[in-house]
Model the fold of this input.
Amino acid sequence: MANRIAIRRESKNRWERRAPLTPEHVLRLVNDYDIDFVVQPSDLRAFPNDRYREAGAAVEEEINDADIILGIKEIPVQELEPGKVYLFFSHTIKGQPHNMPMLKKLMDLGCTLIDYERIVDEHNKRLIFFGWHAGAAGMVDTLWVLGRRLEWEGVRNPFSSVMKAHEYGDLPQIREHISSIGRLITSYGIPYSIRPFVIGIAGSGNVSKGAQEILDLLPVKEVSPQELPTLKKRKDAGTNIYKVVFNEWDVVEPVEEGKEFDLEEYYRYPERYRPKFFQHVPYISVLMNCIYWDSRYPRLITKEQTKELYSDYRSPRLRVIGDISCDIEGAIEAMVRTTTPEDPVFVYDPWEDKPIPGWKGTGPVILAVDNLPCEIPIEASEYFGDKLKEFIPSLSAMDTDQDPKDLRIPNPIRKAMILHKGQLTEPYGYLEKYIKENGG
Done:
């Protein structure tokens, strides 16, 4: 059988301009595999409707006759259709309360749900992701607000001309402008009052790599966490930004005295480890949170530690936190709400435990945009579609009426199937309790 595949119009918010497949991907799939595509028109999408039409897809408002529907973000409950196969980021695998009604509705409608986040290889490594682009956009936005925060403090600085990521035309323009700022720093130096200037990056995965690639366009010297207390004595602090990448063994330690850190044990039994990251925070000017986190793991910085930092230091070094992972009250407990590309930051008041809009005030400025890749939609979509397109032919040929174990699909797709015809598949049975609690 041949399934008709639809690309839906993103409707979660006005900032979402990405697409799971670009017109070029559609053209190749139509020509090579004769796949039938229908694309819902959109005035926001980064790729014009006519380009999809020219690629061989039908462009139609109604996509109800499609068998498989591709999206990016969560789909509003009222837009779900019975019996469809959906692929999108559902944000349900942690039992997220706000998305349990959507998951329950998909079950009631007898739908199949394949979550991009769970398309992984035999080593549980994600195969389809926007992480690099989230890190890159997050680094740009963090430098943008850093410039404004320092200006508010009365510090003339080279970051004042940085724009938000979505205000640039594309990624090459971002690279060109950040590189030009790097040349200014090389020529004129880091403002004396903020030396040594340290940007800490928690995590070393794809999100971290995206953030680092933008940061490395500036004059950067990488140092270890152990070197942080010595940086104020270094003679190269005037013309360099110090970058420090924190791995798991830098942020936690075994509870048992004398025991060596074991990464596999930490992932399996995080309760055997305690946090030690806060010892580094007084030396960091900007912190980028790029780690995966759930409630089993220790936090990087608690609210109480944030209060302690701003109580013990009249002007703590830490100005800005770019929380790319964006878990509400997660690894950065002071990240109390998400933001949008239009209004991307707030100051966390540690005494009132509340966010203050903008970048002025006592407390760290926190970047908390929960869909950062949408700020560089063309490159993000191109990269994502390059990965996704490899699975489209098998999805097009899939017999959706078959039992999950009999489906002739790649194993990574099978692993990512949260629902099959309205039923939780075996790996995701644990979600039943969350659905009962929060499914509406």
About this structure: The first helix runs from residue 23 to 33. The longest strand covers residues 197-202. Residues 131-375 form a domain with the Rossmann fold fold (CATH 3.40.50.720).
